[in-house]
Amino acid sequence: MKILVLLSRIPYPLDKGDKLRAYHQIKNLSKNHKIYLIALNESKAHPDAYENLKKYCSHIKFIKLSRFRIYLNIFLCFFQNKPFQIAYFYSKKVQKQINGVIDDFKPDHIYCQLIRMAEYAKHSDIPKTLDYMDALSKGIKRRIETSELYLRWILKMEGKRVMRYEHHIFKHFDFKTIISEQDQNLIIHPINHSISIISNGIDSDFFVPEEIKIEYDILFAGNMQYPPNVEGATYIAKQILPIVQEKYPNIKFLIAGANPARSIQNLASENITVTGWVEDIRDCYSSSLIFLAPMQIGTGLQNKLLEAMSMKLPCITSSLVNNALGAKVNHSILIGDTPQDYANHIIDLLENKEKRNFLKQNAYSYVRENFNWEVTTDKLEQLICEETASKS
Asked: Cα separation of 46 and 24, whole Å?
């Protein structure tokens, strides 16, 4: 089968959740199918991107978005009923290029990741799949209370527009997928239960436990420009860490991840290390004792937790995150609701090696048994093939 994959970002390097998901899905789909990848880009592509992706794609086209067109679209969007997400990534020139590829490549199926790319495919008669990935509208609404006052009215407007668009775009795609049951239920549509759950996976050959010197007590990792990650790291530094420091004043906290926002860089201190981009994130996992992800906003499944659990770190997170992860509480994971809860869990794990070992072994087994890119992509492949055959 010939599959055209439409992405809003080049899926390399793997520094964002959507890139990671797309990369591994393309890698596994390419075993049985011919992949034509079209990925939008706002800046210069990573020098290794093309070489890494051509191993799995028969054709690759990176399309650079015009910065002028982006700004113009955002301005015009204020007077339209269209989400900023859609306006930001849509261009009639890009549409013509994609239409040309469809005419030449003649794909059997179009796989479109995220609603921000849906406009490019929605009018095509070719069988097509939309990967919502998560419930973006809910994620936006969760950000409202923690955002600056000047941003709240924009987020309220965008949340309503995205919710309407998630509903509207549903009918234009033959097949829909999403990361978790929690997100499936948050898509406002009378038959949202028909959205297939295709979870993320873990590269179990890459994220393998290593025994090296422990340098940090607590680790938080992720793209550090992403608002839920910025809030999570700030919450640890300003609300959780001070409680722990009452008993352990020299505790070391590592914030690891690309593109740290200025507010994250400003957290650096004697107790807090901010790395920025790291060549190998496994070094951060291996040199840390506990992984903490107290996310209060955002949607989807946290890849950082899958990686930490696969690296045999005891993990502490929020109920919101574990609703998507589905790990057994107090067996494979610990849950906190308040700064005091998180601090108590951290202190308990620092003082109880037996409990750390119990949690990390159970976490390791859980992710290895339930989150595998080959298994999840096989499910996606089966759904796409069946859908395409039924439309032929």
From this structure: 18
Give phi and psi for 172, each to the nearest 5. -85, -10
**Which H/E stretch holds residue 4?**
strand 2-7
- Identify any residues that bridge with 274 across adjacent strands, giving them in sequence order: 255
Segment 118-126 shows an average pLDDT of 96
- Examine residue 13 and say whether the peptide bond preceding it is cis (omega within 30 degrees of 0): yes
The DSSP-derived string for 190-227 is TTGGGSEE----B-TTTS--------EEEEEES-TTSH
Report, at the CATH architecture level, how domain 2-201+373-391 is classified: 3-Layer(aba) Sandwich (3.40)
Sequence-distant (≥ 6) Cβ neighbours of residue 5 within 8 angstroms: 22, 26, 35, 36, 37, 38, 111, 113
Q: In terms of Cα–Cα distance, which of 245, 243, 263, 252 is closest to 340?
A: 243
Spatial distance between the Cα atoms of 385 and 380, rounded to a whole number of angstroms? 9
The answer to whether the CB of 269 falls within 8 A of the CB of 251 is no
Spatial strand order in the sheet of 109-113: 59-64, 34-41, 2-7, 109-113, 128-133, 175-178, 196-197
For residues 127 and 174, is the Cβ–Cβ distance under 8 A?
A: yes
Q: Is the pTM of this model over 0.70?
A: yes
Burial of 47 (0-12, 13-18, 19+ CB in 10 A): exposed
The domain locations on the chain are 2-201+373-391, 216-370
Would you state the CATH architecture of domain 216-370? Answer: 3-Layer(aba) Sandwich (3.40)
Do the two domains 2-201+373-391 and 216-370 of this chain adopt the same fold? yes
Torsion of CA 333, 337, 342, 348, to 10 degrees: -60
Query: Quick one: pLDDT at residue 81?
Result: 85
For residues 14-31, give the mean pLDDT. Answer: 94
Rg of the chain taking only CA atoms, in angstroms? 21
User: Confidence class of residue 238 from pLDDT cuts 50, 70 and 90?
Assistant: very high
Q: Hey, is 343 helix, strand or coil?
A: helix
Q: Closest Cα partner for 39 from 114, 132, 123?
A: 114
φ, ψ for residue 3 (rounded to 5)? -115, 125
How confident is the model over 250-297, as pLDDT tens digits? 999 999 998 899 999 999 999 999 998 888 999 999 999 999 999 876
